[in-house]
Structures are given as C-alpha cells and as structure tokens.
Specification:
Elements lengths: L17 E4 L10 E3 L5 E3 L9 H8 L6 E4 L9 H6 L3 H4 L2 E4 L7 H6 L2 H13 L4 E5 L5 H4 L10 E3 L9 H17 L3
Parallel strand pairs: 1-4, 1-6, 4-5, 6-7
Antiparallel strand pairs: 2-3
Length: 185
C-alpha cells in the first residue's frame, strides 16, 4: 500500500436537466425595487416577468427540466412568495435555490460570486446537464476545474434584454435539444 492519500474524485453523474434561473435582467428587463409595503416594481418601469411566456414556451416540450432559482429576491422575500410570482407550470419545476450558499469575499470583490454559487450547487448535486441564464455570471475562466468547464453552461445576459433577445433563446433551445437527444428520448 502506498503512502499517498486518495482524494475522492468528483463525478458529475446526476443527469437531471437543470436550468438555473435568475429574475432581474433575465425574465424581465431591469432590477427589482421593494417598497415599504412589500410591493415589487422594476427600476426600468417594465412589467415584471415580461419574458416568462418565452421561458414557458421553451420549456414546455421538456417536462423533465427542473429549475433552481438563483435570484437575489430570496435575500429579501420568503421562498414561497418568490415562487408565487411564477406561473404554475414554471413554479412546479422549481426544485431548489442557491440561497444560503455563501461566496468567498474575493468572488464578491471580483464579480464572480453568482458563478461560484452556481458551481457550488452543481458540485453538491453532481449535476451533469445544466444551464444558467443570468445577467451576472462572470469569472467562469478562473472558476473552471479539471472536472468542469463552466463557459458552455453559462448564458450571460444583457440585463436590458434578458431572455427576450434571440441569442439567449437560441442557446436555451440548443441546450434543451442537446439534453433531450442525450437522454435518448
């Protein structure tokens, strides 16, 4: 027996297709403002969740896709209230959140905190087939590991367009088709 210690190898073997979904700059244009009565509006004046119909349309043919919420709304509002903003077809897909995963200070400082948080969730749940749609997934290049290259899994959105733009919708469609064909379905 050698004196080398064996470090367990991380295997990403959970095939469940998982979509990480942010709210602000993703399913609507703008960032949420919470007033003293607990009412939510957007700094842009745009309607809340204006692109949710597009997300529903994209996901509808793929009932096996689960959603993990990455929205910062969870820092201010209870999970049940955040979930209540989604229509039932999307809400029933939500299996978790990244709430409670704390990034290192350096990641907060360099802007890669959201990417680190998503990567942590991916590792904890051993996710193999996942995609993150978000307007703040930065720093993937320095968070890559020998087990996981992050860039193909991240759709960095322009917060002024969210998933309303054609390119993010194409990326989501391509990922869904790829995961569906890999499933053998």
């Amino acid at each position: 027996m050698s004196g080398e210690s064996k470090v367990p190898v991380l295997v990403l073997d959970n095939p469940t297709p998982t979509l990480f979904v942010d709210f602000d700059g993703t399913v609507h244009r703008g960032h949420a403002l919470l007033d003293e009565n607990g009412e939510v509006s957007l700094d842009t004046g745009n309607p809340l969740f204006e692109f949710v119909p597009e997300l529903e349309r994209l996901l509808d043919p793929y009932p096996q896709v689960e959603i993990v919420l990455t929205t910062s709304w969870l820092d201010k509002l209870p999970f049940e209230r955040v979930l209540s903003y989604l229509p039932p077809p999307l809400a029933k897909r939500v299996v978790g959140t990244t709430q409670g995963i704390k990034p290192r200070f350096g990641y907060l400082k360099d802007g890669s905190a959201r990417t680190y948080i998503i990567r942590t969730y991916v590792f904890e749940h051993r996710l193999k087939n996942w995609l993150a749609i978000d307007d703040s997934v930065y720093g993937a290049y320095h968070l890559n590991t020998s087990v996981l290259t992050l860039e193909p899994h991240l759709v960095l959105l322009d917060s002024r367009q969210g998933i309303g733009a054609p390119e993010p919708q194409r990326r989501i469609e391509d990922w869904l088709a790829e995961v569906h064909s890999a499933d053998g379905a």
